[in-house]
Amino acid sequence: MYNILKPKMLFVFVVLALFSCEEDNETPSLRAKFDYATLTPLTPYTSTFVDASGSTTVNLFEGNTRYIMFYAINNYMTSRISANEQIEAIKLKNMFSNTGSPFDDISTGSVLVDGEVLNTSGVQLRNVVAFSKPATQAEAERAALKSNFEQIEEASNHILETASAGQAGKLGTRLVDAKGIELAQVIQKSLIGALQLDYIGNVLMEEGLNADNTRVVGDKNYTELEHNWDIAYGLLTLNPVYLEGSTDGSRGTFEFGAGSYIWEYNKGSYADIHPAFLKGRAAIVNNDHSTLQEQATFIRTEIEKTVANAALGYLGKWKTDQTEADRAHHIGEGLGFIYSLRFATIHEADAAFSDDIIENLVGAPNGFWDIDADKINAASEAISTKFGL
User: Fold this and answer.
1) Residue 101 DSSP symbol
2) If you ran DSSP here, which 8-state letter would residue 279 be given?
């Protein structure tokens, strides 16, 4: 059957088709256009982005919950070590996957933890750790972390003994395994990479930038793209203004994990991270993808540089430390940061790069106890070259 269009109808059809093509090239705006010039380094994140009724379109719950879970895992390990108590691998694994109501209230310290809120949140760390990697590799990275949980439990069986080559125990106040590795530091710094660097940089600020921005999610007040950006901010900090009041000599807000080390090991750029998050969020409102991409690339690059600088910093401290306890502590931190470099995709680092450095540093039978200046220098040179530092 032939479809015969009258000339007038054909004209209308062509106009409508052209109009549709033009509309397809522009994402419809849900919000009033945002004036970038109104943003300042002290502009608070949540209250700045609102809908027509004045209600915030920001929801930080998911990001903040994972941040607090990460903090709680670290607190569990360090508090047990300070109290000379055994660490249970099953507890750490359950906290990692949020299984069996593993979180307890923590009423001391800089972060107050409500165990019930975490336990019933429906949020976990495990499913987003190493998320950017292919499934098999992601599972391997998660398995490596869980293996560290088992190793720290084993080391804690010797918590009342003095550590030496081949003997787990304490060096000063630090718990190390039989190879002199402070696993609590390895776990903490490894999660900075596998959780924060990877999920923020390689997921939410990579593929996550392609999320829908044309409609709100269900009965929520935000689009999928807005929420991806908010999760990233919430996983970095609990504060409305990240690093508010900070100077090179003093950090103005409490930060944990990557948020702290950005200030400590990226003096040239830490003050620009909060403005970049603000401008990126405003770019989402404006459907300004090029500006959004610029801010995402900046944030990702600076977090990667932070991790590399931290690895170099802790390797360097081995040379200046005066005690074995301090050297072991700083090598543990350095190893965790070196592991995290595998997630530095902007700088094209990978697991092989990280693993080779770690093997050359502590692959000998006595691990930490066999480190010498040549091994430190070789590791530092490899990182400096890769990251242009």
Assistant:
1) S
2) H
